Amino acid sequence: MSLDNFTDLPSGLKPEDPFPEWLNSADNAWELTAAAMVGLQSVPGLVILYGSMVKKKWAVNSAFMALYAFAAVLICWVLWGHRMAFGDDLGGILGRPHQALTDGYLLDQYKEEYFLPNADYVFYQFAFAAITLILLAGSLLGRMNFYAWILFVPLWLTFSYTVGAHTIWGSGFLDKPGILGKRGIIDFSGGYVIHLSSGVAGFTAAYWVGPRNENDRHHFPPNNIITVLGGAGFLWMGWSGFNGGSPMAAGLIASLAILNTHLCTATSVLVWLSMDMIYYKKSSVIGAVQGMMTGLVCITPAAGIVDTWAAMLMGALSGSIPWYTMMVLHKKSAFFQKVDDTLGVFHSHAVAGALGGLCSGIFGKPDLLKDFYGVDSGISYGPGLLYGVIEGQKLEGLYQVVYQLGGAAFITLWNVVVTSLICILINVMVNLRMDEEDLEIGDDAVHGEEAYALWGDGERDPPPLRFHMTPKIPAFCRRR
């Protein structure tokens, strides 16, 4: 489309000049790439992962829940969600609802200190919002009514996700943080906003939806472990954009964030694998994928503001603490046993996300914090507790840890309350849970489709094989 057709061009942009002075092509290209990488984590990443990690009869339904959420969130995001999360403040916890579709808004500069258009930020933050809903779905696979899920996605995005994003990141992310961000809470790329909220909300929704049927809950093998690894690969490599895009520039902090992301993740995989081998005497592929996930989640709130040695130490923690809560505590606790969290999202995202947020308050390096958040933001981000002790600022470091704990408590409480209210409301309109007959059948009953339909209607069975004791001799081998 020619720029001549735009009716509401922002200041500084002329129809014959699609490259205004403030636009940095490198930053713009990197941010679009990062946003696309985050999108690929969901589609096809989590679509493949969910479709492969569940029992065969739930493969279509699980993958479809992810695909629907991705599409629905985009429409809601540009119509009202983005401005509710990052628009003009309303009461400290929410932005003013408004669409983000006009050329004048999308093609205008995103803040004076950044050199890319609002369109980049809208799409990047959409990819964050979409993956949050899809991660949440991992707690509900194998029994939630798909029509209830259709209603749940826009409601939870509107009343839960936007509040978490606004309170911590605010209308300007770095220059105009929300009420939690004003206290100096560190969340580099969504450890609280995305992972803690999805883990807590998924666990809460799983309580209201109820457990899978008895057979599924106790016998739920992945239908294809090889494609599980394929989906996991999209997640791991896509996390380069997840954390590397948060600085909104192709600079030093982005480079450090990407390296720290992969160091933490690799360490977490090896630690989780070691724990499995020590206690269960076997190396589990699914366990390694869980360790990968907890490492990615744990480093997210700290990726660009900690040293590489701290990232590796966080990987050791994320490979062991969530392992203990999932593999030991979960099995012993009556509370955890009561709630059927299908893929263990509470442990891999809520526990790992909270752990990463706490580590941010311990290992946050002062000069990196200044580089990322800026010295002119007006917000006092204290040094991590470790550096506070080293530099003689023990009190500031302690305050930072307290702020991190307070932020985790707010996100947890908000998601428990709001998710519960949403589930109760939806249950008035449609059943949250599938009918028992459909639970027995799975995909064919819900969608009329199966993931692996090798034989369809109207086709004959293959002819029976005939075995000959004496093999036939090929014609060209016979004597004439």
TrEMBL record:
Gene Ontology CC terms: plasma membrane
Keyword annotations from UniProtKB, A to Z: Ammonia transport, Membrane, Transmembrane, Transmembrane helix, Transport
Family annotation (Pfam families): Ammonium_transp (PF00909)
Claim: Transmembrane is one of the keywords in the record: yes
Membrane-spanning parts: 32-51, 58-80, 121-141, 148-169, 189-210, 222-242, 248-273, 285-303, 309-330, 342-363, 401-426
Chief location category: membrane
UniProt xrefs under InterPro entries: Ammonium/urea_transptr (IPR029020), Ammonium_transpt (IPR001905), Ammonium_transpt_CS (IPR018047), NH4_transpt_AmtB-like_dom (IPR024041), RhesusRHD (IPR002229)
Domain Ammonium transporter AmtB-like: 29-452
A GO term, aspect molecular function: ammonium channel activity
Protein's cellular compartments: Cell membrane; Membrane
Family: Belongs to the ammonia transporter channel (TC 1.A.11.2) family.
Full protein name: Ammonium transporter
Species this protein is from: Oldenlandia corymbosa var. corymbosa
Lineage: Eukaryota, Viridiplantae, Streptophyta, Embryophyta, Tracheophyta
